[in-house]
Each structure stands twice: as structure tokens, then as C-alpha cells.
Amino acid sequence: MENHLDSIAISNLSIHYKKQQVLKDVNLRLQKGGIHVLVGPNGSGKTSLLNALSGEISYSGSILLEGKEQQKLSKNELAQTLSMVHSTNAVHHIQVEEFIRLARFPYTNFLGRLSETDKEIIHKGIQLVGIEELLSKSVDELSDGERKKVMIAAALAQDCPIMLMDEPTTFLDIGNKFLFSKLLQQMKLELGKTLVISTHDLDLVFQVADSVLLIQDQHIEQHSVQEVRDQKLIEKTFEAYHLQLDANGKLIL
Amino acid sequence: MSNSVNNSIYVILAPYMQIREKITFFILLLAVALLFLGSLTIGSVKIPFQEILSILGGEVAEKKSWTLIVEARLTSSLTAIFAGIGLSISGLLMQNIFQNPLAGPGVLGITSGSNLGVALVFLFAGTQSNVGVLTVIAAIAGALGVLFLIIGISLRVRNNVIVLISGLMLSYLCGAGVNIILNYSSKNQIQQFVNWGFGNFSSVHPDTIIYLLFLMLGFALLLTLLSKFWNALILGEKFAGSLGVPVFKIRIIGILVTGIMTGLVTAYCGPIAFIGIAVPHICRMLIPKTNHFIMIPLNILVGSAICLIGLIFTQYPFPLPLNAVTSLIGAPVILWILISKKAGWKTT
């Protein structure tokens, strides 16, 4: 049953990619203002699920975003409901501030002019992520950690209730990973965002997740972090019984 | 937060042009006006400047031949502006659509497509003293044909270097087609085609140029009004798509309009080298921004100025083919950009 506390409600979702079934009969309810972390082996369908949510690939079944059928939303409505934190490989020579400003596309008029509200929202995102000193730099001059922050600021400028992230901690050093976890908590608590994150980073799972979405054999099961830890579900999902995790979810070497 | 940060946010988020940018625009506008008057004045026949102004004002000149010369020069100058607008904006948009700083009508084989179309007309429809409708249609069809092939290749390989080399290959293919056609053409036809290939701003009929110029300005206005979309395309296909940008539709519009603009210029002025690729880079050096609301008008001014300079150098101090002049201006700019990596975009 759909619940007004659900930000995302997925029913009987099946996804095919290149004639092969990737996900089958997935049913999920993702609570508003929660951090939901997708975990599964390579090629299990994590990115496919995110792509289906963002409307990039076709699927059968139903996805409700903030109570509205995703396939019935216009491009602009979808862009105002859900933002994606992109990888930065495809981004070229452009000043950070101009880059973030462009993320207001779904809200600006035909001439793309920013209103005071637009500027305020952009400013808030920049402050939250803490990239004031990067604004005049070019995106292609930034380090991996800095780029990640800029992409998050751009997604925040898009001002959507739902944010998707595909393996966001890849290439981040320990310090930046810590800052990133803190930032996720801030986005959840201060801005009330619903975050769906696909990752292989177990630290992220055990530090920030409100629910863990385990993908295995075309199916997704939703668990609490406690259940994942107690029932050794990570080990089962990856069929890696030699893995040993301590009480905090840290890998024991 | 520090003052510099406040200033920085203000600078970029301010919707209006900065004073420095306004001054740049003003200087460029002045330069285009001076070059325009210069192109009317400079030539093998010396006409006093006062007389030129009188003729432009509709008064009778001291010598009747002066009126004819000034009218011919006026047509050439307006044609140079027409070509400058068409080629520079086409280059700017192609660099945006293909996300490739080295894209341009010449490099991607678009001009060669037009060449092939025009060569076919020269062979089958005979030579024409003025550019006919058939030549224009053939040039536009050739340009659009190659553009759609290139966009097909770029969607498939998504590698800028391969796309550029593919453009070069298509250019060779069109060149081979032209050579075969020339092989079966008469001496007169070959001579006509070779002359057209040197490029010139004096083939347009005086009655036609004003319509062509308005048409080109109309296209420029349309593309400026779509600046919001060109700006968003800079973010890359995926990001732009997730912001609700109709990426496919906007690309098709861009391709159609740039194809028509390039085809028109090529049909009337011949295959002019380097303007399309070099002018957008010169503009980025003048104002290092990505906002197309600023960049399209800037390209109009710089493209017009450079084509007017080209026109002047084809006549003074001694006659030179237009394409040699534009290559002498454009090629060093591109070389400098390649060596200094000013392009800033990745090659893959």
C-alpha cells in the first residue's frame, strides 16, 4: 500500500537490458528523508535501478515519486522531483559557479534568467557543501574530491526532494569520505532529502544508511542496518563467506 | 564568508554583463563599423572618403564609375558580414553540440559536403554567372548530409578524436567525389569551380544580399533565444537530460540551422576556411564565458570583423585569394590553442 511517508514507491518493477532481465518483480517503499543504500555485486542492477528511477531507461511496473507516477511526469516535473549526482568525467571547461547555476534549468524562464529565489537556493547549496573557494575555478581543474562536492552542490541547486548517487565515494580519500558521510547526514537532517545511493563502500552502509537495499539474483530486499549486521547479509549477498565484519561493519583483515 | 567570495558570487550570478564585457562589445562594434567603412574605401581605385559617404547618402558622385564601384564594394562588405555571422555561429554551435573544441564546418567535413553538392550542380546544370537556387539547395543538402552522418558517428563512438578523424575521412570522400566530377567536366566548368573554391565575397547579386543578411540575422536571433538550451548542453548529454533538457530535439534544431547557415555561406562565398573553428576561440579569449546569450552576439561581431579584414586583404596591398587570407588568420589561432591547451576540453 502506498503511504504518504514514502518518497519512492516501486511496484512490480522489472528491467531488461540488452534482452537480458536485470531486475524482476521489485517492490520497495523508500521512506521520505531517509538514506537508502543499494548494495550488490557488480552487474547486479544497481545502476539500472537508478536509471529507471531517473527515467533514463524503460521498465515495466510502477514507480511513484513523491506520490506521482514517474512515467506521467513531464521532463521538467521529473527534473524538479529527482536529481542525480553525476560523475564528472563528461564535464568540460566551465567555471564552477556557472556550472552550478545551470542546474537551475528546470526553474528558470525561457531566457534562463535567475530570480532572487534561484540565487538563494544556489547560495545555500554552495554553503552547505563548503565550496566557496572553488567558485571561480574551472571544473576540469578540480581534484576528485572537489569535483564530487561541486556535483553535489549542482544537485542541491536543482532543489529536488529526491537525490540519487551512483557510487559517490569512488576515488575519494579517507578525509573526503568522512566529510562526504557528514554531508549526507546534513542533507538528510537539514534539508529533508531522500537519498538513494548505490555503493560498494561498506563504511558508508554502516555509517549513514537508514535502510539497506540488497540486490541479488534480480531481486531487491530491504533491510535495516541492524538486520544486515546481525544476519551477515553482506556476506550472503556477495557469496563471500570468508569475509569477516566487526560489530561496526568494518572488514576484519 | 570572505569579501572575495561575496564578490565572486555576485560576479557570476549577476544576470547583466560586466563593465569589462560591455566595453569589449563597444570596442568590437566600433571596430566592425570602422572595418566596414575601411572595406568601402580600400581598393585598387582610390575614391575620396567624402565621396563614399555622399554616395552612401544617395547623392550623385563626381564620377559615375565611383557609384558603381562603391555599390559593388558595399555588396562585398555586406556579404563578408553575412559569411562572418553564418560561419562563426555555426562553429560555436558545432563545438557545443559535439562537445569538441576543434569542431567546425571545415574540420568536420560539412563544407566538403557543400562542395560536393555545388560540384554536382556545376556538372549537371552548367555554369552560372550568379549563384542560383539549385546551387544553394545543393550546398545546404551536402552540408546537412555530412552533419547527420557525423552526429550518427558521434552518438556511436562518443570519442572526440575519432569523430574528428571521421570528419576528415568524410571530407576526403566528398573530395574524391568532387575530383571524379571535375574529371568529367569541361575546362570552363573546372575553371568556374576552382574560382569558386578560392572563396570570395563578390558573387552575391546586390539585390539579394540584403535578404541574405536578414535571413542570417534571423537565424542568429533564433539561436540566441535558444541560449538557455545551448548553455545546458555544456553540462554533457546525461546531466542536461536529467535537468529536463530535450537533448535530442535541441541537437536536431542546432544541426538543421547550422547546416543551412554553412550551406548558404558556402553556396554564395565558396568553402571559406578557418572562420568557423577560429572565431569562437578568439571570442572565448576576449570574454572567457560559456553563456550563449553573450557568446552568440560576440561571435557575430568578431566573425564580421575578421571577414571584413579578410575582404580588405583580398584587395590591399595586392590581390589575394580569400581562402589564403582566412587561413593565414585562422590557422595560427588554432595552432596556438592546441599548443597552449586553451581549448580546455578533453579530447576523449
Task: Describe the protein.
- The complex is a heterodimer of chains A (253) and B (348).
- Chain A has 253 residues and is α/β, with parallel strands linked by helices.
- Chain A has a single domain, classed as Rossmann fold.
- Helices cover 34% and strands 25% of the residues of chain A.
- Chain A is built from nine helices and ten strands.
- Chain A has helices spanning 46-53, 75-81, 96-102, 116-129, 144-157, 174-191, 202-208, 225-230, 233-237; strands spanning 6-17, 20-31, 35-39, 60-65, 68-69, 82-85, 162-166, 194-198, 211-216, 219-223.
- A six-stranded mixed sheet of chain A has the order 6-7-8-3-9-10, sandwiched between helices. A four-stranded antiparallel sheet of chain A has the order 2-1-4-5, covered by helices on one side.
- In chain A, strand 1 and strand 2 form a beta hairpin.
- The radius of gyration of chain A is 18 Å and the shape is globular.
- The termini of chain A are far apart.
- Chain B is mainly α.
- Chain B has one domain (2-339): Orthogonal Bundle (ABC transporter involved in vitamin B12 uptake, BtuC).
- Chain B contains 15 helices and no strands.
- Chain B has helices at 3-13, 19-41, 49-56, 64-97, 110-124, 133-157, 160-183, 187-198, 206-225, 227-233, 237-242, 247-269, 275-286, 292-315, 322-340.
- In chain B, helix 3 (49-56) crosses helix 4 (64-97).
- The longest helix of chain B has 34 residues, at 64-97.
- Chain A binds chain B through residues 54, 56, 74-76, 78-80, 83-84, 86, 90-95, 97-99, 101-103, 105-106, 108, 110-114, 119, 122-123, 126-127, 132-133, 135-136, 138, 140, 154, 158, and chain B through 1-2, 5, 8-9, 12-13, 15, 99, 101, 225, 227-228, 231-232, 234-246, 289-291, 293, 343-346.
